[in-house]
Amino acid sequence: xxxxxxxxxxxxxxxxxxxxxxxxxxxxxxxxxxxxxxxxxxxxxxxxxxxxxxxxxxxxxxxxxxxxxxxxxxxxxxxxxxxxxxxxxxxxxxxxxxxxxxxxxxxxxxxxxxxxxxxxxxxxxxxxxxxxxxxxxxxxxxxxxxxxxxxxxxxxxxxxxxxxxxxxxxxxxxxxxxxxxxxxxxxxxxxxxxxxxxxxxxxxxxxxxxxxxxxxxxxxxxxxxxxxxxxxxxxxxxxxxxxxxxxxxxxxxxxxxxxxxxxxxxxxxxxxxxxxxxxxxxxxxxxxxxxxxxxxxxxxxxxxxxxxxxxxx
Length: 313
Fold this sequence. Notes:
By secondary structure, this protein is of the alpha/beta class. It is built from 14 helices and 11 strands.
């Protein structure tokens, strides 16, 4: 696991699929154990350099090592992140909220959907806030009739809130500059915006095409040109706001600040309003890049992923 940390997620997923000795009951247990090892790498390393040996010692109830004494270091171990980043969270949130955040990102992310058009019928327990729908429990979304009909799409609550902030009004033009697979583009088009989407990753744009076709939404996928009422720059980032979904991000933290600044500089002259967002929770990628405080959506209050979003001009 330590030799190729950037491959932790795919490696674990493939190993689980290929291990034929695991039955339907054993697979969830083994999966939780492996994800736990990824989420708590720093804590395990204090017990034993071999993460498997450390996990087995924990299961045997053996001592976990000395108390680190320093609160920030203890918190960094709890969230398995560098002390400087853990310290930033601890100071910004205060002790109790920081502990809530640590517990939150150690668990599973909830399943949020977006209603692209009504009526939406879901034969499962759920909670709805406007177009945002949180399912209670797990399910295969592909089996939901409303999903197959293109009325629903999977989208985290934080991502939905970013799209709502970027909405220019009915008929307004939006460029989703770092569109990825197009969750925000779909939400914007469903609200009535005229959306152009672009991303440097062809596979992501192929997925956007597929999703837009299923949902019956008209989204122009093309390199950007001209001016737009709104340009949304959901920039590449460290991913510290989505650690619940991608715990392996802890092993490959990267802060592409220069890329973020370049994207804003290129977009600014062509935007009536510029919206900058990241799924990151570090000030160096957020407030220090945007130059304004903006708004940070922390995962623990609403059950969303972590996002930063700011309107510039």
